[in-house]
Amino acid sequence: MVSWEELFPWLPWLYESMETVRDPMFYLHTVACFILLALAVVLIAGREIQIFPKPKVVRFHYKWTARMVALYALGTAIGTVIYGFGGMFWIMPGIMSVAFFTWYMLWVLPVLFGWPGIWAAATMEILAAVIFGWVNVPLLYLAFAYDFFLGWWAWKTVGRDPSFRTVKSWLLFLGSYSVYAFFQSFGWGAQYVWWGIIPLPVMFMTRSAFNIIWYYFFIWIYPPLTAVLYTLATRYRLFWKQIEPQPYTRVV
Amino acid sequence: MSVYRLYVDKGTFIHRLHPIVKIVWLFTIVVLAWTFNRWEYAFVIFLWALLYAILSRVPLKKIFGTAFLFVIWTAILSIILWPAFLRGGNVVFEWNVFRFTDIGLSVGIAYGFRIGACMVAALGWLMTTSQRELIEGLADVRVPYQFSFGIMLALRYAPLLLGEIGRVREAQKSRAFNWNRGSVKRRIQAFAENTRVLVVPVFNRMLSSVNQIALCLDSKGCDFSKPPKRRKLRFNRFDKGFLAVTFCVTAFFLALRIMGYGWITMLA
Amino acid sequence: MTDVIEIRNLRYTYAGSEDLVLKGIDLAVRKGEIVGVMGPTGAGKTTLCLALSGLAPHSIGGKIEGEVVISGMKTTEHEYADVARKIGIVFQDPETQLFGMEVEEDVALRLVNMELPEKEIEERVKSALHMVRLDGFEKRFPYSLSGGEKQRVGIAGALAANPEILILDEPTSELDPIGKREVFDAIRALRELRETTIVVVEHNSDELARIADRILVMKEGKVVLEGEARDVFSRVGDLGVRIPDVVQLGNLLRTRDEWTEYDYPLTVEDASHILSTIIQKQKYASTTSEIGTPEIEREEPIIEVKDLWYVYGRGTEEQTTALRELNLEIYQGDLMALIGQNGSGKTTLAKHFNGLLKPTKGSVIVEGLDTKKIPATRLAEIVGYCFQNPDHQIFNTKVWDEIAFGPRNLFLTEKEIRDRVSESLQEVGLKGYENRNPFFLGKGERQKVAVASVLAMYPKVLVIDEPSTGMDWKDSISMMELVKKINQTGKTVIFITHDMNLVAKYARRVIVMAEGKVLLDGPTRSVFGQEETLRKAFIKPPEITQLSHMLRDYFKSTVLSPDEAYDGLLHLSPMN
User: Where would a tag sit more exposed on chain C, N or C end, judged by fewer CB atoms within 10 A?
Assistant: First the structure.
């Protein structure tokens, strides 16, 4: 009989490496997860944390126009459809899957459309999970809060210039995406362990490492695709900077 | 069968429950489904979820039609893969690198029932809750109007977008585009372009509708800063009774879990 | 009668643009009047509708100058909610104006936003659905309705608020003939039931001629012609508007003294009556002019359909038999129209030619290849398929790359791709557009890009699905001239359309489908001559053809154009 180790001789090394880091990583990500959740709640409550020039919490307000509602609705719709029918490859059902199109939608909707896109990204995963029956408890709050906060992050960074025609645009993307991919990959695993959906702790590392490898594998697709979608958004005057009235009034 | 339009009014007491009560029930099933990893307990939760569907007289054929193939496949995949990650348990069967342990089998089958319970519950819920009720229910718990309306629009337009995706695929096939042609290396190299081929036209179709929809919403006097007054749904004794039963059953199962039943401590 | 709409020197610029779209419009519309607005694409018709309804500038922003006064209320000086109480507006695309999950929910939306009591909402919804003949449709899912039904729900939604003015912006352009008829019948019924003032933008001059009290023709942001239908159509010339056939006949006959009494009737029935009167007065017998159908040389068929059956959703609840025992041969060089109402099986049949659909039973042989055994991607080299909406294909930011996509999928060399793309651009008249962004082109140009991208694959057969939907007459003719030119190079062209005027003008062969079967197959003249069978398929031939049928005692052949009718009338022999 052949064992996994005989088939893949580097497996023991991989297990050992992951075991070395798993405990600190696990606790670090649990803490990070709750911090992100808190930040998401703060954002949902209409407040942003300003770092420069002076650290403080500022309130913001925006009015939902029909255009924004329509963007929110269709963004959610396309996200839900792609989630359900967009070729998710399940490696381990409910645990590990490669769903590039879904990941891309979660990122690009906020980048191009701002707040309607952020809300659409937050809503689409839950709606799709409920409709297609893949719902679990951490998904209900993680999907919402995580996708919301990380969507906001993507918008605040790459959303300034998603044209990929300037050096600034590329630098924003590379810096932002690293953070985005890291938290989308690792944050969930910690929560899945807390809920007993996956066993301690190698699975957490396996799942997270699996996800981040795929996130980085697909990184090269984002720029050309986003550049085209940005052209489309501006053509229809739906890029977030073009949606009137400018809703992102900051109330200090 | 469109997953977006499953509601069938059978007039049972379940159909007449307050939509929030039904959402709470769904949530409890989701919690319970992930509470146990022993197959016997997961099976009981699955039956509990199925009871709702039976009581509401929804067509079980629809539930077990597509959904169940996925559930069975999930269970099979879980049975094969879990033992690869788990240590401990007695080996029941071995083949090549695959060792099927008793723990692995139990957890794998339980996974199938867990996902099955969630799917049965979600489909049953969709079949007993009209979208209008859902929106009114969300409004009752103070979900802002733009979101409840937006979700209703999303459900309304999702089938159209699905149709658009199908038409885009046909249109590109008509230009000899074949996603699966060529070596694996070539397919990976072409992945970026292949993605654009499908995503860009679909996005284009979606965006071309947004401005028109917004115009129509404005023409119908939709003001999202001032939601219109609407009827309030009231809780009646059926709602309270159903909630009480749901909470009791949920508490019972959670108590079992806390006492250590239904759970295999997995070492990995 | 009072004027409910008064427009004085209206000028409008869209947000983010410097160009004036409306350049000084003056208009007054009386209560209860039906005004038709026509003009080529880009004339400003939709913008006029938006300005009239107050959506410009309240919804879409932009800069408006001049005055728009609705029932004494200036739209720019009041809240949109107040303006909206007086006006209902229905747009072109029925899909984007239905929001509810049930018809009654959709019709009630406007009323819910007006915060009317529930009982009153219920009554008004019922009344509105009755006005558009959709009684009993309350609980239906809008997605499952036909195009005409959806548009009527849209109209009901606007009517439920009891507006004084109803604006319809190209309400039938995306509909099949039955849908168009239903919508125009609903508009006619409205006029009889209540005194609603109606402004309707349309390309369909035949129907507009029947219902409009007055017609405006717009061009480049201005009203260039205004008056009664008879007057406007007799003077419209080359303003990008299709003149009804019976009016074109009038233009031809006005130079002949013996036919001056013809005097521009607007409907086929009126034209038939007048012509009969003149013919009897002048004591004419039948025409000596005979229009023959040239024999077409047939070689081996390029596509053979044998006992074809196709069933959608086999084994499910929604199983539908779309094609039944079809037998058909298509030859090299055919220029063929495939017509029939929605659901007749036209598109289903056409998709078998390039293998997008595989037969449930029977076979489709394309150049000797059985489509059941060959993938669609391989058949794409023989049969090119252009979809109705070019946006389903376009994904590149340069026209050149878009057209090169097809040949690239055939693994051709760069030189071959370059040559083919240049040739295709030349053929469709888009030379010089290589570096343009296709997303920023007009619909007609995008359609040509889509056609070019298929032509670049050198197919032997080209299938074009609805080449003229949503286009004005000028763009439609431009598209069809391109189709004719492609056919003249030896390619077989099959076009699917609902526009019988285009079929009469361009097709040499017509296949009529109904309920999954071929009802008629033959030369255009012969097919359009079979009134009874066409009626079964709910097909109405062009008005001039209908006229020749009504005057069958005098016309020996079915007439396909006003020129042929004119020729026939000139060759009427005196009675012995």
Answer: C
For the stretch C43-77, pLDDT in tens is: 999 999 999 998 988 888 889 999 999 988 888 88
Any C CB within 8 A of A242 CB: yes
For an interface test with B, the pick among A64, A71, A74 (most B C-beta atoms closer than 10 Å) comes out as A74
Domain annotation for chain A: domains and CATH numbers: 4-38+65-245 (1.10.1760)
Chain B contact for A69 (CB, 8 A cutoff): yes
Distance CA C172, CA C205 (A): 12
Determine which of C437, C443, C446 to mutate to test the interface with A (most A C-beta atoms within 10 Å).
Answer: C437
Q: Is C222 a domain residue? A: yes
Same domain, C222 and C251: no
Q: A242: which chain C residues are within 8 Å (Cβ-Cβ)?
A: 16
- Same structural domain, C203 and C352: no
Q: Is the peptide bond before C359 cis (omega within 30 degrees of 0)?
A: no
Using CA atoms, how far apart are residues C286 and C361, in angstroms rounded to an integer?
49
**Which residue blocks in C354-398 are alpha helix, DSSP H?**
376-379
Which stretches in chain B have pLDDT values below 70?
A: 1-6, 66-67, 81-88, 97, 181-182, 189, 230-233, 266-268
Range of the domain at C270: 245-282+548-574
Closest Cβ opposite residue A231 in set C15, C61, C439: C439
Domain boundaries of chain B, sorted by first residue: 19-129+234-258, 144-219
Structure tokens at A170: 């590329």
Within a domain: C295: no
**Is residue C111 domain-shared with residue C217, that is, in the same domain?**
yes
On whether residue C418 sits in a domain, the answer given is yes
Same domain, C536 and C567: no
Looking at the complex, does the CB of residue B226 fall below 8 Å from at least one CB of chain C? no
User: Longest C-alpha distance within chain B, in Å?
Assistant: 69
Q: Pick B221's closest partner by Cβ from C93, C114, C356.
A: C114
Q: Do B216 and C95 touch (CB under 8 A)?
A: no
Question: Which among B205, B212, B228 is the nearest to C391, CB-wise?
Answer: B205
Is residue C145 domain-shared with residue C260, that is, in the same domain?
no
Best of B134, B175, B186, B233 to disrupt the C interface (most C CBs within 10 Å) is B175
How many Å lie between the alpha carbon of B86 and the closest alpha carbon of chain C?
Answer: 42
Strand partners, C95: none
Same domain, residue pair C85 and C217? yes
Residues whose CB is less than 8 angstroms from the CB of residue C524 and which lie 6 or more positions away in sequence, other chains included: C337, C503, C504, C507, C508, C509, C510, C560
The residues, ordered by sequence, that sit 6+ positions from C548 with a Cβ below 8 Å of its Cβ are: C555, C557, C558, C559, C565, C568
How far the first Cα of chain B sits from its last, in Å, is: 41
| Residue C223 and residue C349 in one domain | no
Nearest CA in chain A to C61: A244
Distance CA B103, CA A129 (A): 28
CATH number of the domain residue C10 falls in: 3.40.50.300
8 Å CB contact between A49 and A39: yes
Give me the number of domains chain C comprises.
Answer: 3
Per-residue pLDDT tens digits for C407-422: 998 889 999 999 999 9
Among candidates C101, B154, C575, which has minimal Cα distance to A79? B154
Of B118, B157, B218, the CB nearest to A74: B157
Residues 6+ apart with CB under 8 A from C535: none
Is C287 part of a structural domain of the chain? no
Which residue in chain B is spatially nearest to C154 when comparing CA positions? Answer: B216
| C48 & C11 share domain | yes
Average pLDDT, chain B: 82
CA–CA dist A197, B86 (Å, integer): 14
Query: Are B154 and A93 inside 8 Å of each other by CB?
Result: no
Band the pLDDT of C21: cuts 50, 70, 90.
Answer: very high
